[in-house]
Amino acid sequence: MKGQKCLCKVCGQLVTPTPAGTCPLCGAPREMLVMQRDKDDEENDLKK
Ligand SMILES: [Zn+2]
């Protein structure tokens, strides 16, 4: 992987996950990290 950014739903920051897949800022589990893609399709899951 090359600097895949994720949006952390806990601290609200765009972060690069640790090798363990957790948030480097607040330590949130990877379930709380939303992969950022070219499109915003992912966000639709949350608002439904
Ligand atoms: Zn976080």
3D architecture notes:
The protein has a three-stranded antiparallel β-sheet with strand order 2-1-3, with no helix packed on it. It has one helix at residues 41-47, and strands spanning 6-8, 14-15, 33-35. It is α+β, with helices and mostly antiparallel strands and 48 residues long. It contains one helix and three strands. It is globular, with a radius of gyration of 10 Å. A hairpin with a 5-residue loop joins strand 1 (6-8) and strand 2 (14-15). The longest helix has 7 residues, at 41-47. The termini are far apart. It has one domain (6-40). The structure holds zinc ion (ZN). The site of zinc ion has 8 residues, from loops. Zinc ion (ZN) binds at residues 8, 10-11, 13, 23, 25-26, 28.
Key traits:
48 residues, alpha+beta, 3-stranded antiparallel sheet, 1 helix, 15% helix, globular, binds zinc ion
Q: What topology emerges from the helices and strands here?
A:
Elements: E1 6-8, E2 14-15, E3 33-35, H1 41-47
Antiparallel strand pairs: 1-2, 1-3
Bound molecules: zinc ion.
Query: What is the strand tally?
Result: 3
Strand % is 15-25%
Integer-rounded radius of gyration: 10 Å
Mean pLDDT level: 84
Strand order of the largest sheet: 2-1-3
Q: What series of H and E elements makes up the topology?
A: EEEH
Low-confidence stretches: none
Q: Count helical runs.
A: 1
